[in-house]
Design a protein that fits this description.
13 strands, 23% strand, alpha/beta, Metallo-beta-lactamase, Chain A, globular, single chain, 6-stranded mixed sheet, 7-stranded mixed sheet
Length: 263
């Protein structure tokens, strides 16, 4: 007779995972936890950005928004748990991306943190006692199977992006794209020798002219970026222009949005 124990254990695991908004069969996804707009009206919006990458070898929080209380509240409203976060990647040292980090670590001290090597010692000193480990990133590094930090870029504002490898190409997650959206895309494509399936996150195009925005869109097309989800510091005009240019391949962002990224 076949033992019912394995099936029972599988059922229990599914119930536990479903309580966090993720089942064992859930596809890999990017879950927006902090953004300027709320896609799910139960969630609260605020200037800043944070998202959770689920369904990979590790559960990864990318950036942490500006306010810890709001970040943790949106975790709960999206039926996710801070305790499930295994890795945190911070894109750059601006308060709207780091403000929720210490409150998150207070709720989960078992997570490892990846900071740009340029991060001020004041922040690093506060993170070290509350994290399972701190890695100061100075070059591209794989943080778990199929997920890498692209490495610090830029001169005045140093920033790093997250790159997720999928069967359909690279998925790039940006904080603000201070080093330049096209520069980030070009580096990722050269580093991994693969096409770009999607870019989501801040693009820092608030002050760009119509001509400059068209140049960015033309370059994205030249690089064969299939999908774009511009948000946060992108600006309403840039978002509208990209939505028109990419049509059904424009990815709507906002807190509560769950974007499937495939295997």
């Amino acid at each position: 007779m076949t033992s019912p124990i394995p099936a029972l254990l599988g059922l229990i695991a599914a119930i536990v995972l479903s309580g966090t908004g993720v089942s064992a069969e859930s596809p890999a996804a990017i879950r927006v936890l902090y953004d300027n707009v709320a896609r799910d009206k139960q969630c609260e919006a605020d200037w800043g950005f944070a998202c959770l990458v689920t369904g990979r070898e590790k559960t990864i929080l990318f950036d942490s928004g500006a306010r810890g209380d709001l970040l943790l509240a949106n975790f709960e409203k999206m039926q996710m748990r801070p305790a499930d976060v295994q890795l945190v990647v911070i894109s750059h040292n601006h308060a709207d991306h780091t403000g929720g980090l210490l409150p998150l670590l207070e709720a989960n001290k078992n997570t490892a943190v990846y900071l740009p090597a340029s991060t001020p010692e004041t922040l690093r000193a506060n993170v070290r006692p509350n994290a399972a480990g701190v890695t100061e990133v100075s070059q591209p590094i794989e943080i778990c199977k199929g997920v890498s930090v692209l490495g610090p870029m830029g001169r005045e504002i140093i920033e790093q992006s997250l790159v997720i490898e999928t069967k359909n190409g690279l998925v790039i997650v940006t904080g603000c794209s201070h080093p330049g959206l096209i520069e980030i895309a070009e580096k990722a494509k050269a580093q991994f020798k693969r096409n770009i399936q999607m870019i989501v996150g801040g693009t820092h195009l608030l002050q760009h002219s119509d001509e400059a925005l068209q140049g960015i869109i033309d370059d994205l097309k030249r690089l064969e970026v299939r999908k774009i989800g511009a948000t946060h510091c992108s600006g309403d005009k840039a978002i509208a222009r990209m939505r028109a240019a990419f049509g059904e391949n424009f990815v709507e962002m906002g807190v509560g949005r769950v974007i499937e990224i495939g295997e």
